[in-house]
Amino acid sequence: MITIALVPALALAAVWNWARDEVRSTPVVTVPSAAAEGASVIGVSEIVAVSFRRVPSTLLAEVVERESSARLEGVVDAVPEGSCLAVGGEVGIRVEADGGVSAGKLQRIILAAAALEVLGPDHRYVTSLHADGLSGPVIGDLYIIGGGDPMLATSSFSDVMRSVPSWWTPVEALADALVLLGVERIAGDVVADGSRYDDDLRPTDWPASVSLVEAGRVDALVVDRGRLSSSPRNVAFDPVQAAARTLVDVLRARGVVVEGFPRTGTMPPDVPPIASVRGEPLSRVLAGMFNTDDPDIAEFVLKEIGVRVSGRGTRAAGADAIADLVASWGAAGVVMTDGSGLGPDNRVSCGALLAGWERANGLLPDGLVEFAGEGDVLGTMGDGPPVAAIGSAPVIADALALLSDPLDVASLREVSP
Description:
It is a single chain. By secondary structure, the protein is of the alpha/beta class. Helices cover 37% and strands 14% of the residues. The protein has 12 helices and 17 strands. A 5-stranded antiparallel beta sheet has the order 2-5-4-17-16. Strands 14-12-8-6-15 form a 5-stranded mixed beta sheet, covered by helices on one side. Helix 4 (155-160) links the parallel strand 9 and strand 10 (169-170). The longest helix has 22 residues, at 2-23. The two termini are 52 Å apart.
């Protein structure tokens, strides 16, 4: 599937390299835009043509413009209905489908670009412990407060996932901190607080083919991706409750007596913090999302964007913030129902995909989104311009070759005075 998506684009890169050398240092002709049926051209900038300075004819210039316009119309007409195309660089083509397109996993590049801008590449998720009634070796209730870290895990889980190039945040560090503080007994309960995000754990419109193992339940406090044990398939119904149970197990393994029970709840105000653990920088977490095709990270990040922009840890708040940000980039709007692109009602534009790629391609291996679907391209190959094409990349690649071929000087002279 990846080969089908990339081979035409690689051929296109070779054409671009050859054509660039052929037309270097030549004048630029600006041509009008044209729209294919069912699509709208958002903007077209410049088409490069060869020099005709030795033919001082106004008619020849008009012929050149008509030929360039015809080529551009050929590219636009080649974009199938319901597909879209955006080409960056000097070409600057935008052909968008009415209502946007479903780009699937590719929309994560928009999410990543938004996260880098809203949260910052150095943002770190923080998970903290708070103690009620700390008194020597004994404390009352112990609260673990979720900060939305998608990588919070036990060492046993991270060992199972060792082949995955991700960077896990050790939950054991919190238990070790308690031991270093001299805590020997918890007289109360271990309370897990995931109130930073809402309780919409998993979108109901995801296809039945998307299993809990592939994309789980997302809340502000999740350990081992909500697993009840290190087994990848043992997924808890309530990930926050499972986090409380996991912390109790980790504490007891270190000799700390827990007299109460693991439960969920919201921490009262003014309970002091006693320990915390920070995850890896966001840029590294996002790179892991792309390297491992991880939909869960996308869902965590979407909700965190909502918290930062509006104070609401919901998918809708995050999606609204991203839509506004994409508009500020000068791209067509997006309608996102989730961060991962698994839902059927997500709609984006090729212009938004290209804008996201331009801002976040440093997270991608070789600048390419490796999980592009058949017929889709997002990225740049060789020295060619960046391309976002959804729906029919081979056809679009052939059409773009029209713009790379130099105009036939001899034939154009024949129609000039």
